[in-house]
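Field reference: sequence -> structure
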Amino acid sequence: MCIFSDPGVLYRSTAHQTQLLKQRIVNIKGRIFRFKYCKTCFIFRPLGSSHCQECNNCVERFDHHCPWIGNCVGKNNFKHFFLFLTFYNILLLFNLIVGMVNFFTVLSSNDNDFQLSIKIDPNSFVEVLLCLAVFIYLIRQ
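Structure field:
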């Protein structure tokens, strides 16, 4: 869903006019809001929106452009992106635990000989290393 859904793209204006003002000041219920003008999309962007250089679109409540999903993360797909990260981390943690259980089972059956256990079951050892590396990378981000 976060890959294929619209992140909240603000559609471009059809009027390609040169805008003299850099920002529009609006007073709403006594509060002053400043809307910046996007020179690429020819629109005044609402608060929290930004122009994505990768997609070349203004996105409402823009968070970032994610290379993992190849899409911007914004107003409409932030919940889906959060669920994607949550379930991906759960899957990584599950694979890490299963790989460790497999590897330690082989290790205990070989009288705790670490090198022999790696030779017998290298897949579990590599799975543990890869899952641990990706899990640590994602948690640190």
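Note: The beta strands are 9-10, 23-28, 31-38, 43-45, 50-52, 57-59, 64-66, 71-73.
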